[in-house]
Amino acid sequence: MASIKLILRVQQADATGSCPLYIRLIKDRKSKLITTGVKLKPKDWDGTNQRVKKSMKNSARLNAYLDQKVADASAMIADSERRTKSITAKKLKEAIKGKDSVNFMVYAKAKLKKLEKTYTVNTYDNYYSQLLKFEKFVDDRDFCFHDIDIVLLQDYMNYMANTLKNNKTTQKLAMIVLSIIFKQAQAENLIDDNHYPFSKLKLEVEPSKRKFLTIEQFEKLRKHKIYGVGKAELYRDLFVFAVSAGGLRFSDVVTLRWKDYDKEQNIINKQITKTKRMHRLKIGEIATKIIQKYKLENPDPEELLFPAIKQANFHQLSDREKDTIITSANRLCAAHLKNIGEQIELPFNLSFHLSRHTFATMALNKGMRIEHVSKLMDHAKISTTQIYAKIIDEELDKAVDEFVI
Is the separation of the CB atoms in 27 and 19 below 8 Å? Predict the structure, then answer.
């Protein structure tokens, strides 16, 4: 015989301290949760008597609503158990909700695995970790698509914000990953096209405060004397190279091969790691000098331009093996750049990605057209590049405020 009880999920409290109220269904020691759509503060809920306390406004109306929800669920359970003696908790939940169900996590993991080759290793790993985070929150192996509604998604966002301390950008990424899975299932006609709770969500991102080096700071970095053995000078040079080479990302700089570089025209032709697009750009004089600094005698076209990665067979490795090596080099680079940034007294931590921001702001400051900057940075949308134009405008406004009377 199945049993039902109202449960206040205090671990899912939102910013106001309100918690979602669920119907907990237990059958053969297996439990399922069904949302009631009601949220209460713990002080307003009497779990022993299964009632909203009278001290809460509209308690009588809420109790009547909850009584009806419980009665409907009980009637549905009794009817289902009469018809099928061996019915499971999962099937009872489906009967109460009145919907056919597809297991969300089983489908999501299998689908993401099939799409793995269409993503970079980092993107795939990020998406998969978001699925695991959602799975831990739900804590139900039989969780289905139709269990996901606007109330549960809002509860999940509150959980990410208040328990996991995820910022708004991370919360948005989590919702994007779940929505991708929904769209895939709908494309395969596995779930109803009308069931798409994400359209009701309001998603935000954290305001972007992109740091970059001024021309003076860049020159100070470029001319900074580095002593001792190790790769500090190499990683400083690679940062400078990226600023002079269209803001190339770290993964693209360290995987450049001699065959990617046309020394006659000072042009690089390379498939970008992140986007998989072929990218052509002309590099500046500073970048050219750095290439010459690290050039070996009669280099093999397949050899890497820079000695940040030592594996001779690097380009024969799998994408995941390459990513592991690049990530390791990036960590070492980050440590060296942080130390160098402190030595030249930068007011922020120096990281390789700032080379990209520095290129964009320098190019725009020098009058390069925004569409040209966008092309050099391999942005899919010019709106992405416009973020840097906004930074320039803010810097100009600040200069006016300080110097114009």
Answer: no
Domains present along the chain, CATH in parentheses: 3-97 (no CATH), 104-200 (1.10.150.130), 215-403 (1.10.443.10)
pLDDT digits (tens, 9 = 90+) for 80-103: 666 666 666 666 665 555 544 678
- With tokens 């990513």, the residue in question is 323
Q: Which helix (H) or strand (E) holds 20?
A: strand 19-27
Residue 397 is inside which H or E element, if any?
Answer: helix 382-403
What are the residues whose beta carbons fall under 8 Å from the beta carbon of 83, sequence distance 6 or more? none
Give the whole-number percent of the chain exceeding pLDDT 70.
89
The reported pLDDT for the residue numbered 220 is: 96
What is the pLDDT, as a whole number, of residue 378? 83
**What are the Cα distances from residue 117, in Å, to 49, 112, 123, 272, 316?**
54, 10, 11, 15, 16
User: Dihedral angle at the C-alpha atoms of 137, 139, 142, 147, nearest 10 degrees?
Assistant: -40
- Of 204, 129, 210, 123, nearest to 161 by C-alpha is 204
Task: Check whether 201 has a pLDDT greater than 90.
Answer: no
Residue 229 CB neighbours (<10 A): 6
**Closest to 307 (Cα-Cα) out of 254, 246, 350:** 254
